[in-house]
């Protein structure tokens, strides 16, 4: 009955035994979460994995302590009660929603987990009128405070400055390979390759709506094509470039956005106003691509300008000449 949202127990209605049982199940869940993080990070971030191994061990130690307290006070049969059975009790993010978001996000989630447990027990103890439950909640809050301190100590012991810098470099490299590189390739393709057909249509028809439809079709079509190509040509296992789905989405979305940037101005009915806006956006797009290449791919800025801005200008000129002719 606990699992039905409308029938969740209020924390204030729990007995001391149930509060202790809830703490036991929570500590067990947190230990398994930390162990899962450690396993996920072990290959690329061994120092942080060691930290989470230590935290999982610490949580398991507290679980054993709480079980011993339960046996001393209430016997060996522990009631089955979990976080989701109690209204307003602090929740945990599913591991699969966090573990693929990067090492810093995982570290932040671990800190949030410890802080949430501490603050909940602390506030619950202040609101509780029963002296026995109040004392128990205070003890649990103190345990969670030690968890927070222990997590920081574990990080200092296992993840020193050098290791953290190395892991940050690995995380940045993975971010670039998974998101920046395919996204940049998509943005370049969407911004540059659509210039000729869009502006050829624009100057051939001098009709904003027709130009917009052609531009929309070119942008969306290019996005779908680039996304599938990126996802299909490399599964990321050997190259280490990460999930093909993530790379495909990054490439496809950025390709479509690259084309849509100078397609949307043609929603303006006046052809020459729309074209002026589109040309200004093209100029901004090309310089933005050059900046991204310099910022993330470490391409010398002058070379990036030559590759992107001049190349894009030539494609643009070709489209205008073909359409105007």
Task: Tell me briefly what this model is.
By secondary structure, the protein is mostly helical. 77% of the residues lie in helices and 1% in strands.
Summarize the structure in words.
36% of the residues are buried. The longest helix is centred in the middle third of the chain and has 33 residues, at 161-193. It is built from 11 helices and 2 strands. It has helices at residues 16-41, 46-74, 95-98, 103-127, 131-158, 161-193, 195-205, 208-233, 244-261, 271-296, 301-324; strands at residues 9-10, 86-87. It starts with 8 loop residues before the first strand and ends with a helix. With 325 residues, it is mostly helical. Strands 1-2 form a two-stranded parallel ribbon. Residues 1-5 have low confidence and may be disordered. Helix 6 crosses helix 9 (244-261).
């Amino acid at each position: 009955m606990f699992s039905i949202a409308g029938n969740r127990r209020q924390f204030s209605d729990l007995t001391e035994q149930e509060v202790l049982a809830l703490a036991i199940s929570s500590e067990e869940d947190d230990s398994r979460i930390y162990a899962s993080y450690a396993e996920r990070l072990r290959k690329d971030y061994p120092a942080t994995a060691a930290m989470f191994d230590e935290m999982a061990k610490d949580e398991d130690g507290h679980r054993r302590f709480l079980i011993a307290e339960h046996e001393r006070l209430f016997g060996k049969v522990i009631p089955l009660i979990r976080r989701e059975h109690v209204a307003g009790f602090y929740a945990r993010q599913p591991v699969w929603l966090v573990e693929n978001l990067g090492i810093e996000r995982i570290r932040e989630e671990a800190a949030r987990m410890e802080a949430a447990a501490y603050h909940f027990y602390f506030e619950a103890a202040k609101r509780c009128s029963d002296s026995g439950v109040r004392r128990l909640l205070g003890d649990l809050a103190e345990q969670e405070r030690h968890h927070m301190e222990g997590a920081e100590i574990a990080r200092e012991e296992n993840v020193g400055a050098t290791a953290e810098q190395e892991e940050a470099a690995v995380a940045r490299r993975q971010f670039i390979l998974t998101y920046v590189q395919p996204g940049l390739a998509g943005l370049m393709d969407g911004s540059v390759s659509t210039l000729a057909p869009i502006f050829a249509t624009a100057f051939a028809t001098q009709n904003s709506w027709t130009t917009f439809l052609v531009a929309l079709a070119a942008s969306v079509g290019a996005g779908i094509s680039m996304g599938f190509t990126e996802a299909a040509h490399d599964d990321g296992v050997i190259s280490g470039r990460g999930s093909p789905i993530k790379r495909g989405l990054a490439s496809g979305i950025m390709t479509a956005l690259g084309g849509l940037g100078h397609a949307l101005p043609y929603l303006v009915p006046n052809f020459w106003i729309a074209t002026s806006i589109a040309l200004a956006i093209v100029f901004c797009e090309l310089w933005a691509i050059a900046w991204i290449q310099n910022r993330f791919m470490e391409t010398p800025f002058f070379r990036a300008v030559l590759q992107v801005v001049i190349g894009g200008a030539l494609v643009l000129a070709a489209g205008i000449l073909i359409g105007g002719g």
